[in-house]
Amino acid sequence: MRRTEALRSFVRETRLTPTGFVYPLFICPGEGVRKPVGSMPGVFNLSVDEAVKECREVYALGIPAVILFGLPEHKDEQASGAWADDGIVQRAARAIKKEVPNLLLMGDVCLCEYMSHGHCGIVKKVNGATPETEYEILNDPTLDLLAKTAVAQAKAGMDIIAPSDMMDGRIDALRASLDAHGFENTPIMSYAAKFASGFYGPFREAADSAPSFGDRRSYQMDPANAREAMREIELDLEEGADMIMVKPAIAYLDIIAEARARFDVPLGAYQVSGEYAMIKAAAQNGWIDHDRVMLESLLSIQRAGASIILTYFAKEAAKLL
Ligand code: PBG
Fold first, then answer.
1. Among 8, 71, 91, 94, which one has the highest count of C-beta atoms within 10 angstroms of its own C-beta?
2. Nearest-angstrom CA–CA distance, 164 and 114
3. Which atom of ligand 1 has the smallest separation from the CA of 166?
4. pTM value > 0.90
């Protein structure tokens, strides 16, 4: 059954299509800006006008959705750029909705890009015995800011709200707040099982969101834990998540497969910046075949059970499919 492409194609179990792709965009201030991200060849910081152009192209390629990240004009300790009505991502959402109305807009709800310290929540300095215990993330006060961010994004026209902060109870808080503001029809895709991963390195350059002290291990998941991932997903679904996501993808295919087997909701996976950068770097060195490895990696994510794939390869892959 493997002898010819006609036969192989006939018996193929998984058919990769762009219909579940989500293309991430990094929105920056200014006009006419298209600034390359060094560690992510082919990825740019785009001003709102350039992002609109990009979205036209993305939609024409058959990619149904984009997810927006923002680089604000200024950062502070309340992440005001995240929830301001005229915040960078809100401005981009309005402009894109006007020009490309059928493209689904996903809003990444997190505070790290907007906080002066780069953490995903409000930070309190405390007297600790070790560097690790010298600060705390204030979970519950952070929920208020996240909820405000979700509402500001929904007001700006986001079709799907995607919280990536990993605070406890955020789905409950976001759902209540969205409902109270008349957005009861706006679905939530939770970054439910998001691991504290070294694969996010290039993203933090792209989004200028590296924490200035400490790391994210006190709120993102320990890469060693699969059972806990199932519990995180279960909790988010109980709190009202409509779709769930596993992140990163390639090093967590077991988590994707188990989530697919256990939960009957749309399942996404985020092929993150480091996964993209590794393939790009090896291909640039001539060590692997770029297109072949790109498609194989995406196929493996779909085969594991994700029907939605957030990937920086969305445009390049869609051109080949
Ligand atoms: C925000 C966020 C991150 C990513 C998506 N949303 C970075 C992080 O958690 O540090 C990573 C995406 C990527 O690496 O491509 N919290």
1. 71
2. 14
3. 16
4. yes
